[in-house]
Amino acid sequence: MKLIFLDIDGVLVTTNSLIPSDKYFAHTFDKTCVQNLIEILNATGAKVVISSSWREGRTLAQLQSIFQSNGIEDCVIGLTPSFNDETIRGTEIKAYLEGCNGLECFVIIDDEEKMGDLEPFLIETEFRTGITESVKDEVISRLMKAN
Questions:
Q1: Which residue in 31, 41, 85, 122 is deepest, having the highest Cβ count within 10 Å?
Q2: C-alpha distance from residue 42 to each of 6, 20, 37, 123, 136 (Å)
Q3: Assessment of whether the complete model's pTM goes beyond 0.85
Q4: Residue 96's pLDDT band (boundaries 50, 70, 90)?
Q5: Phi-psi region of 57 (alpha: psi -120 to 50; beta: other; left: phi over 0)
Q6: Inter-residue contact 12 to 63 (CB < 8 Å)
Q7: Burial class (CB in 10 A: 0-12, 13-18, 19+), 111
Q8: How far apart (Å, rounded) are the C-alpha atoms in residues 107 and 46?
């Protein structure tokens, strides 16, 4: 199994899509970023684990619904645990990985978080652009090297 640990703000929600939406329970996703993520998923067969602060106060089913409402189907399989405000995101991802069986490889897509010793797995985005063509290519390249 290939996993993408995914932030949302600055990855799928960008300055181009900062439009509040009751339909999506937050801001809308940037259409270009959505298309790039769909291409990543189709090319690699990877699944998504939400590491974003969007996981706090939402269930897995609610996040799956938000992704489906944005045209991203059947990819979100989990959420990283949330410990406290002082815990770095990399620690939360490591905790998720400890219970993960059958993992081939993973990447982290995030716009600003510190990852500690998982820093080599980070593919960083910028808040204004999110998942660009070059980010998409890098994610696909890293996930396909595991084959």
A1: 41
A2: 16, 28, 9, 18, 12
A3: yes
A4: very high
A5: left
A6: no
A7: buried
A8: 10
Q: Strand 122-124 vs strand 105-110: parallel, antiparallel, or unpaired?
A: parallel
Q: Report the 3 state secondary structure along the chain.
A: CEEEEECCECCCECHHHCCEECCCCEECCCHHHHHHHHHHHHHHCCEEEECCHHHCCCCHHHHHHHHHHCCCCCCEEEECCCCCCCCCHHHHHHHHHHCCCCCCEEEEEECCCCCHHHHHHEEECECCCECCHHHHHHHHHHHHCCC
> Which of 65, 56, 129 shows the shortest CA–CA distance to 87?
56
Cα three-residue angle 138-87-16, rounded to 5 degrees: 45
Query: The tokens 């991203």 sit on which residue?
Result: 72
Asked if 72 and 31 count as a contact pair (C-beta separation under 8 A), the reply is no
- Other Cβ atoms less than 10 A from the Cβ of 114: the count is 12
- Candidates 8, 2, 4, 35; CA nearest to 125 is 8
Q: What is the pLDDT of residue 15?
A: 82
